[in-house]
Each structure stands twice: as C-alpha cells, then as structure tokens.
Amino acid sequence: MSSETKKIKEPFVRIIKRDGASIGNKVLIRALAIVLALVVDAIFIFAVTGLNPISVYGVMFNGTFMTSIRFSWALRDLVTLLCIGIALAPAFKMKFWNIGAEGQVLAGGLATALVMVKCGQSLPTPALLLVMFLASIIAGGIWGLIPAVFKAYWNTNETLFTLMMNYVATSIVACMTNIMRGKASSLGKLNMSTQAGWFPQFFGQRYNINILVVFILMIVMYFYLKYSKQGYEITVVGESENTARYAGINVKWVTIRTMLISGAICGLAGFLVVAGRDQTISTSSAGGQGFTAIIVAWLAKFNTFYMALISFLLVFLSRGAAEIASAYSLNDYAASIIEGVILFFILGSEFFINYKMVFRGSKQKEVQE
Amino acid sequence: MEYAIQLTNVTKTFGKVIANKGVTLNVRKGEILSLLGENGSGKTTLMNMIAGIYFPDSGEIRVNGTPVEIRSPKDAYDLGIGMIHQHFKLIDVFSAVENIALGLEKKEKFDMKVIRAKAKAICEKYHFDLDLDQKVYEMSVSQKQTLEIVKVLYRGAEILILDEPTAVLTPQETERLFAVIRNMKKDHKSVIIITHKLHEVLAISDRVAILRKGEYVDTVETKDATEGSLTEMMVGKKVELNIERTQPKDTVKRLSVSNLTVYNREGVKVLDDVSFDAYGGEILGIAGISGNGQKELLESIAGLQVTAEGSSIKFYEKGKEDKPLQLIGKTPKKIRDAGVHLAFVPEDRLGMGLVGSMGMTGNMLLKTYGAGRSFLTEMKGPKKMAEKVREELEVVTPSINTPVSRLSGGNVQKVLVGREIAEEPTVLMTAYAVRGLDINTSYTIYNLLDEEKRHGVAVVYVGEDLDVLIDLCDRILVLCDGKANGMVDARTITKEEVGLLMTNLRKAGAQE
Amino acid sequence: MSTLIAWIIRAIPFGTIIMFGSMGETITEKSGNLNLGVPGIMYLGGFAGFASSYYYEKLSSDPKGWICVIIALFAAIAASAFGGLIFSFLTITLRANQNVTGLALTTFGMGVANFFGVFILNGASYTAAPLAYSAFSKKIPFLSSKLGIVSKVVFPYGFLAYAAIIVAIVLHYFLNKTRVGLNLRAVGENPGTADAAGINVTKYKYLATCVGAGLSGIGGLYYVLDYNQGIWATTGQIEALGWLAVALVIFTTWKPLNGIWGAYLFGMLYWLYQFLPNMLGVKVAGYVTDLVQMVPYVVTIIVLVVVSFRKKKENQPPESLGLSYFREER
C-alpha cells in the first residue's frame, strides 16, 4: 500500500505587517505605482485611439508647461486643490471624515459672492476684500461646524452627514445664483464693470494672490499640526479618545474647533475661487475639487508639502488630458479616467508600504533584520 | 492512548515577538486538560492556532491522529473543535438563536424553528438558563458565556477550548460551569481550559499542561500536582517574591474616598458606596476579581467617571493638608489646574495612557502639553525627560522618537510609569501595572513603586496576583461586586482570606 | 387630483432609479463596506447598458426588443460589478481606505462613462436607443389599460419599476430569513465574530460588494434607457442620483422594505417644486425650485440625527461599516 501522506502546505502567501518601511522603499513603491498606472493608461490610450502613448504623454506635458499662461493656469488649479487639501488635513488627522469640503467651499464662495454684490459699490477695496474674506470663512466654518456639533454630542456619523451637507449647499447656491441673475440666462462675472472685489493683479500674473495665500497656508498648517498645542490635541484625539480624556483634553471642544478651522479654510478656498479665479459663483464652482482634495489629503498623510506634490501630479494630469483632448479631438473626460487609474494604483500601493508578503517556501531565505 | 489533538513543534511569531516556540502538546480523548501559564505565556495564541484564528509559522497539528491544516475557524468546526474566546464572539444586535444559527453547516437545513428546538434541547439537557430570543446586547456576561457554550455544543464539538472562562464569573456561576464541563467529559468530549487560577486547575482538570514564555514546559497528572509544584513550573522557579517592603513611616492622609457610587452606561451599579482613605508613605492594594469596580474606582478619582450623588473624593495635596480639594465633578484638566499632583497608570496602556503613534518625547508631553502661554508646544523639557526615563528605566527603543506602539509591552509600560513618576506625584494610582510583563520588568516596577512609597507618595496598586498584593502592599482593600468588602493588613492576612473576601460578599452591617 | 396623479407618475420612476441604487448599496454596506463609488457605478451601469443596446440596434439587421433588454441588463450588471470588483480588490485585499477608494471610483466611473459616451455621441449633444427605450418602458398588458385609475397610477411603468419592488422584498427576505443573509449581516456587524463562526469574510465582502454594485448599476441603466427615454446625454445628473441613493440607504436605516416607500417619498420630494404649487394654485419663483431640491438631503440628515439621538441598536449603521478586516492583526 502506497498511500501518500497528505502534504501539509503553508498558505501560498502570508501577509505580515511591516515595522515601518524605509524612506527609500516608500518612494520606490509609490514611484512604481505611478509608472504602472501610466503604463495601464498608455495601453488604454492606445487601445481606444490607436495613438502612440508616448507622444500623447508628450502632448500632456505641453498642457502644463508649453506656455507661461498654461503654467499659470496649472498653478491656479494646483493651489485651489491644495487649499482644500490643507483644510481637510486637521480634520482627517483627528479621524473626522470630512467629506463635505465641496459644500464648505460653496458656502464660502457664496458668502464671498453675496458680499461682492451687496457691498461692491459702497466699500473701498481693502475693506471690501476683508469683509469678503471674513464672510467666506464664517460661512465655511458654519458649514463645517454643524456636523461637528452633532458628532461631538451625539456621535452622529460624520461621513454621511458631511456628504449630505454638500447637496444642501449646492441647492442653496443654485437658488441664490438664480435670484442674482434675475432674468439673464447666466450669472456672468460679478461686478463686471467696476471689478469691485476682484483680486488685483501683481507682476502681470492673475493668480498671484491665490498662490501666495495658499503657499503661506501650507507652511502655517504644517507647523500648526506638528508644533502647536492644538495640533498636539488633534493628534491625540485622532489616536484615541480615551487617551485624550485621560490627558484632560476636551474632546468635544477639539472636535468642534478643528472642524471650524477645517470648514473655515474650505470657505477661504471658496473666497479664492470666487474673488481670485472665477469672479462669479455657480453650483460647479467647487468642481469636484472638494472630493479630489480628500484623496490628496489622505494620500499625503496630512503632510501639507506632500499634498502640494500630489496636487501637482493631479493637476498636471487633468491639464494634460485637456491638452490631449483638444490635440486629438477627444474629450476632457479622459482626464478623469487617467486620474482614476493613477489613484487606484497609489491607493493600492499603500498596502505594500504597510505590509510585506511572505510567499510559500521563501521564508528560509528571508534576511533577518 | 488515543489523542484528540497532537501539536508538534508549533511556532508562531508576530513581527519580532515570538508568541509560541516549538510547542509540543497532546490532548487525550475525553479528558479535561488545563493549559496553565502566566499572562503572556502564549496560551491563547496556541489555542487560537487550533481554532483556526491564527496559522502557525511552522509545526504540525494532528486531530484524531491525522495531520490537518486549520486555516480558518470553519476548518476547526469541521474537525469538531470549538473555542469559547475570552472576548465573546457574538453579534450584539442578533438574538441568541440567530447567533447560534450563524455559520452553520451548509448541509443542515436553515430553518429557525428547527434550530431553536435543537438549541432548546441542549439547554434543557445541561440545565442552561437562556432566553433564545433575547438580543445579545441585553444579556449579562454570564448569559453571553452560556450562549457561547450552547453555540459550540450545537455544532457537535468534540473538543472544546475555553479561554479563561471563569475570569468574569461569580463563584456560583463558576461552579455551574464546572458542572457543565464535567457533563461534557461524561459525553467523551475533550475539554481544554486556559487559566492561571491554580485552585480551579486542581478542582476541575485531569491533567495540566504548562506554558512558560511561549514554550512548553510539561504536562502532569493533576492528582500528582500541588499549587506549589504547578507554580514552580509556571514561573520557572519557586516563587519567593522577595519584594522589598519598607515599613510605612510619616503616613499622612492624602486621599479620602467616601460613599463613592458609580453607575455604568447600562445603569448597572458598578461601585456601591465605597469608602476608604489612602496615606502617603504606604502602598494601598486593591484586590478583586477583574470587573468588580476597580477600573471605575480609579477612573472616578482621575475625573474620568460620572459619579452618583453623595459621592465624595477628597484630595490632600502636599502643603495644603488642611484644605482638601473635592475631586468629584472635576475634569482631569481642572484637577490638574487646581495644583493636584495625581499620577495614574491606567490598565489600557496604549489605548488610554499613551499615544501609540508618538515617540517617547511626544508622550512625555501628554499631560503637560498645555502648560505656558505659548501657542506652540514646548519640546525641550519633554525631550530631556524622555532621555532621562529612557536611561533610568532602561527603555529599549531605537530612538526617543520611535512610535511607542512599536515597543514591546514591557518598554511601553516603562515609558508610561516613567512619565507618571517624573511628575513627582502626591498620589500614584496604578491599574494592573505588571500585566503581561516579564518577571524582570515586573520587579523593576515593584521597586519603583516601593521607592515612591519611601518618598512619601500615596501609592494605590490595583493588582490581580494575590502573592504580589500581599508581599508588596501595606493594606489591601478588597472589592467584591462593586462594594468595599474589607480593608485588611497585608502583613498579617493570608492569601486564602483575601480570596474569600474577593468571592464572598459579607453580610451587610459587617463593615468595620 | 390630476396634478397629484401626474406627480406620482413622475415620482415613481424617479424613485425606481434610486431604489435600485440604494438596494445595491444596502447589500454592500451590510457587509461592512461603505462604497462611496455609487455614482460612478451607476454611471458605468447606465453607460454600458446604453452602449450595448445602441450598438446592437445599430449593427443587427433585425434587432429585437427582448434581446436588447437582455444585452443591456447583462452589460450594465457586468460593468458596474466590475466597478465593485475594483473597489473590493483595493479595500478588501489591499486594505485601502474605503472612503477614498469610493471617491476615486466615482471619478473613474464618471470618466469612463462620459469619455466613451462622447465617442458614441460623436459631436451630437445626445443620441438615442429607441428600441431599447420601447422595450424597457413597455407597459404590462391588461393591467396597464383595463383598471381605470389604478392602471393610470400603478401600472404605467416599465417592468424594471416593479422589479425594483420585488428586489426590495426579496432583499428583505434574504437578509432576515436566509442563512446567507444572516451571515452577511454578521460580517458587517462584527467580522471577527463572523470569521470565528466559520464564515469566509473576504468572500462575503467581495460578493456583497460586487453584487451590490451590479444592482446599483441597474439604477443607472433604468435612468438612461427608461426614465431618460433611451437618450444618452453628457450631464451630471447621474452623479446627483448616486448620492441620493447613498442618502436613501441612511434614510431607510439599512432596511430594504423602508426603501420602497422611501424611494417614492424621495421622488415626490424631488418633483415637489413642479407639482405642489400647481396643486395649491400658487406660482413660485424659479429659485424656490432650486431650494426644494435639497429637501431629500435635509430629510436624510434629520433621520441620521434622530437615529443617533435614540441610539436604538437596530437602527444603527452596521457596526464595522467602513473598516477593513485583517484576521492576524494585533
């Protein structure tokens, strides 16, 4: 009788938590993810259009860098996205899922636009800008505050709450623009004749104020989160509420204060969009950036400088895709696809940073650290 | 001899931590085997590998003589193995019968009426008192455990593993459980009980297997074993605790708790009219079966619990002995702002005492980050403090900025205790300060506490090991069912007397 | 009265779209996965259904309605389930964050649908699949004509409107009365417990998410081929519908039967601006209609808040909603 003994196998692959990958590893894994994503996108481009992907990527590059105007547009889009990302950082660090940036931006933008229209004639420019600024951060702050209060006191699910708040804001903006435009078919630029409340231009660049404000914000937020007492509180609350209570931190207050800040900066982004970019308001003023910024903030792990890098990558893609669209008479939505694929790959790559896989039979060879 | 389970050379590691190393262990058919070992000796991990929760890194498992792969709990069930975990694996919003129906064999028809009838029959056979339609979130701990056992029996398990089943039970409930286990043995089922309570081991089991630091020591017949011999195998040498205990001197009243009553979220009284005083220069031990109000007691003093009306906690700060401060109604921050030096080493180290993602420096800051007017945190002091704690307590860490969650349990505790002591407290409270720590680190902690006592600190030590409580403390307050069931002198009391106070509530009026 | 009937006739098809969307998301969320990619998935479903029937009509010499229905349904379910598969792979196998992955999926789905949509449109602002429309909106014979007012209000819709109700009832039965449904709920409540009970958590999460996505995709299909009369137009409409479907899941407190009336209520609320003033004989300005659009969301917020006030265990979201499960984590 030659009954074979049943062979005991290890699982084909086992997953083990890493004790923190080295910086080099992290960079390598992420770079690899982006390259892989670009390859997948290249296959996609070739399959659909039959165009040479390399030259298509070359054209994409032109979308951002060919002329100084385009570069300035890219910077403008970058700072808008980055600004919202910065706004989300403290909330996410506190593990408060603020999915409501879109609505908070709209709230801030709407407040800005209303002040522009109502006080455009009566206030001198500096005062007008100041009032617009204040109105935007108050409006955005309130929009962030409402879900925070319910979360703090009744533990209402903030992901779903903030998500719903987006559409409430959209409706209000639709309503207000409808009133403001009156009988006209569209709202058009606000204060077209007087340009009251428009950001002045410096050095011939239209978006210098936006860029400057967000640049400062990026640095301030970095230090706020890392070195301030409030930033410390945010970290502790995000890590464990019990530890926070033990340390004497007022968890409710920190939750509310942080969302107030998060919402207010979103509102500020709305201010920058309305006063510095569009000079008008519509339901698409936030343009989905509130959602994209969530991904930016998450991937950057709350480091505002990384956020700038990731924002740049995404803006580069979308401007590049717009360029492809016009060069090959395709359409802008290619950008969403390419962006989506790259995001999938980056999201997936996090796994290889946090975990390592041990394949069957390979563990004898594994180098002991 | 027929074996139900044979483990050969089983090893399991988590990252750099070795939980089990080359364990070889046999379980006979129809026996009650106790798996004995200290906290952290790898008992639960080993059993989890039989139950399919973990998969061993290497080694062989045989069930009824056949080598098997147990990759999932389902595999375990198929082999007739059922485990009752310490943290119950029940779905809160499901009823009892729904929990029983969960994950049943496909070949069994899914009919709630049939399942209920069968479950009811099991309940009647073993005299379980269980309402099959009750939702789990409405059940008491002992009801939940009963449900777990019914679940496993329903699946016709031949091998039952119980992970510290008596930790949460009253003596009566424990007796009932043991009766059930003996009944199961009569049915020729094999039962493995994970425990570290010696008297239970001797009372219930046929054989005892001992683990120490993840390694297998030996298996002995219970009839040949004594508490002494088992303890020796468990800890490796005869327990001469040898804790340095100094005579209390210059004792000053530091803390006066009176009529403390606390209700938990479900409205159950978890502390019932507890009164005691703690003095500087002594260690006050608090004994009791876990879950008898120890946690709530310390948290009330630290300002983390809502207390019932009539409760009073007076704190006598150094130099202000004539002006005691009422702590009831104050938040931790208010308590600190009032100039009270109260240190608290909570049971849940990484979930309450420390911030896992921060390094030692960041953690040193936890209670003092708010000091000063500056908007920014002051980092120099905490950095120095971290260096000092690292050096004095010999914390093993790559750097003072390495997240503390990556450190081993003992080092985590050193960081926590180090911080609390560094604040030069008037009162120092510790909850299960040595749980999960190795002997050496435990002694480091005992010596630290005794040193604090010699400096005139009032130390409150909540512990579970009676030997330690008796050898380390000066007085012991015994909690039972949320009530203060006696304050005894640790120097004269015996272990048995404390044990009795822990399990038997004295008649009302017998309070001293 | 006639206004009320007109209102209901408008509200029910609208409700049907989001009912499909929310039933799918309910299955997904019951497994503990919070998939915020519903809008993207509905885009994928709607587009795949449209494109497949469009090309079938165009290429076949003798296109038949029933084949059209089968092809469109198959394509829609396959495409949206594929979206669910991407989400599952990233969040379950690679343990990526669910919120972020869902939002990326929404971006991706919208991109794919609109990119190829424009390809098919080829310059025109919309294009139509008339045969598919007529097949999907075909009324039930007899019932839709012979019962007077009942025919007019209850039976003037295509078969998918009734299918949605059946799906909701079946789903209720499935979740509460079957073995698999019980196991699925356990996975969403407490995957550790489910795992210990011998349930393959990964398999359940994958299946629930993909099946749920496929079901949500039918909502997109219904929108394009029935509600929107077989017309594909590049608008953001589906996105708003997708978020309404997510809202509806919360509104129903994760109970499919509530989804039936909840969906129609949302439909009534959505069309309120057009019919209610008429019924009351008042005229309202255009901006009011914009404001009324937020009512479903406000109602959902109120439900969310009330549920969190009352803390009744049965009405809470699945306990482990939004969390990844990793057995050996410690």
Automatic annotation (TrEMBL), chain C:
<feature type="transmembrane region" description="Helical">
    <location>
        <begin position="206"/>
        <end position="225"/>
    </location>
</feature>
<feature type="transmembrane region" description="Helical">
    <location>
        <begin position="231"/>
        <end position="251"/>
    </location>
</feature>
<feature type="transmembrane region" description="Helical">
    <location>
        <begin position="6"/>
        <end position="24"/>
    </location>
</feature>
<protein>
    <submittedName>
        <fullName>ABC transporter permease</fullName>
    </submittedName>
</protein>
<keyword id="KW-1133">Transmembrane helix</keyword>
<keyword id="KW-0812">Transmembrane</keyword>
<feature type="transmembrane region" description="Helical">
    <location>
        <begin position="258"/>
        <end position="276"/>
    </location>
</feature>
<dbReference type="InterPro" id="IPR001851">
    <property type="entry name" value="ABC_transp_permease"/>
</dbReference>
<keyword id="KW-1003">Cell membrane</keyword>
<keyword id="KW-0472">Membrane</keyword>
<feature type="transmembrane region" description="Helical">
    <location>
        <begin position="102"/>
        <end position="121"/>
    </location>
</feature>
<feature type="transmembrane region" description="Helical">
    <location>
        <begin position="67"/>
        <end position="90"/>
    </location>
</feature>
<feature type="transmembrane region" description="Helical">
    <location>
        <begin position="291"/>
        <end position="309"/>
    </location>
</feature>
<feature type="transmembrane region" description="Helical">
    <location>
        <begin position="154"/>
        <end position="175"/>
    </location>
</feature>
<feature type="transmembrane region" description="Helical">
    <location>
        <begin position="36"/>
        <end position="55"/>
    </location>
</feature>
<dbReference type="Pfam" id="PF02653">
    <property type="entry name" value="BPD_transp_2"/>
</dbReference>
